[in-house]
Amino acid sequence: MRQGWRWFGPDAPVTLDDVRQTGATNIVSALHHVPIGRAWTESEVRERQALIETTPPGRSKLTWSVIESIPIPDAVKRTGGKAKAEIEAWIASLEAVAACGINIICYNFMPVVDWTRTELDFVTPTGATAMRFDHERFAAFDLFVLRRPGAENGYSDEDRARAKTVFEAMPEAEMAEITRIITSALPGSTTEPMTVPGFREKLAAYDGIDAKRLRRHLIEFLEAVTPAAQARGVKLTLHPDDPPRPLFGLPRIASTADDYAALFDAVPSEANGMCFCTGSLGVRADNDLPAIARRFAARIHFAHLRATRREGDGRSFHESAHLDGDVDMVAVLKELVTEDRRRSPENTIVFRSDHGHRMLDDLAKTVTPGYPAIGRLRGLAELRGILHALDARPD
User: Fold this and answer.
1) Example GO molecular function term (predicted)?
2) Is residue 294 in a domain?
């Protein structure tokens, strides 16, 4: 397995030399400055690739191995194969990446909002901070700030009463912060920042789109792009929904093993693969992560390894330390290592430690939410330790 590291570009707080010190060898990145929907050019990709892979004297070599992500425009999610111009631009980006020898592309198909949290610095018992999704705070925002039409139908009487209590007791500044977090697009997001009125408009555009229709749109997208990917040896890896359940009345279609099975059955191309994110899938207690890894082993080309801790109501959760949450990381890695050993060196699984705690010196620094250096380094060290114990030294 190849050790990856998410890097947000030359302006990120974590530098490439910092990455080298973690022991990671494979960079996971994207052209984050390119507007969603515009095709990447080969020259743009090569320029970024040169920045990553031109190794200063005496430094360790880094390789740009994974694109995370080429955003899928909203029009594709709403209209599927009818969004021909947007799909053609996406294929052009794929071709630019493939021409540079990068053969793993991560993407997601979450409508309107990407990964969603309500807190960025939830204080853990160690004093480190973590990201958190609080269901009651989320409901308070949905019902009393966003005031989404029909939102009350998605919550029980008890949920609505509790959300009202939470909203009325919450200082205005705190609710403003939750609103900012939810609407502003978190790091690496493939959706755009929104105002509350803009948020309502986006949601209204999805009126009548249920899970069946959204899945059909994803299948139409895959039917259009997988021939280009397969012809160029590119693996497309669909990231799970985060959290893996409907939000704001919107369907989510990459939350369970059955969701992925339906997509692989519909588009059996070997280019149609999976980003195995243990944190996202692990939020659901009914997701058996080692079993999912075993079932779809041949489809897994990229893995996000992190853990979450489900809280009392089963709907709230926070990011735990990598070995301390609800994820049996040893069992997961056993499955991934078993698959990895079947593969040629150039096709081994790229994994990265995901969403580390903000800790030690990073508590006093400006960090990218979810992606501080020290917390991710701790996670990578723990994952590397498991791999060594399994006698599977990572590359």
Assistant:
1) manganese ion binding
2) yes
Q: At 267, is the secondary structure helix, strand, or coil?
A: coil
Q: Is the dihedral of CA 330, 387, 356, 185 positive or negative?
A: negative
Distance, CA of 228 to CA of 93 (rounded, Å): 11
- For 168-186, write each residue's pLDDT tens digit: 999 999 999 999 999 886 7
Based on the structure, what is the number of domains in the chain? Answer: 1
3-state secondary structure of 315: coil
Q: Which residue, among 5, 99, 102, has the nearest Cα to 346 in the 3D structure?
A: 102
In a domain, 128, yes or no: no
Any domain includes 186: no
168 located within any domain: no
List active site positions. 239, 277, 304, 354-355, 371
Nearest to 375 by CA among 317, 319, 316, 327: 319
pLDDT digits (tens, 9 = 90+) for 192-232: 778 899 999 999 999 999 999 999 999 999 999 999 999 99
Tell which residue, 296, 239, 302, 234, has the closest CA to residue 271. Answer: 234
CATH of the domain at 306: 3.20.20.150
Provide the residue range defining the domain that includes 304. 2-116+202-389
Tell me what pLDDT residue 395 has: 76
- What is the residue-wise DSSP string for 110-135? -SS--S--SEEEEEPTTS-EEEEE-H
Helices 329-340 and 373-389: crossing angle, nearest 10°?
70
Q: Is the pTM higher than 0.90?
A: yes
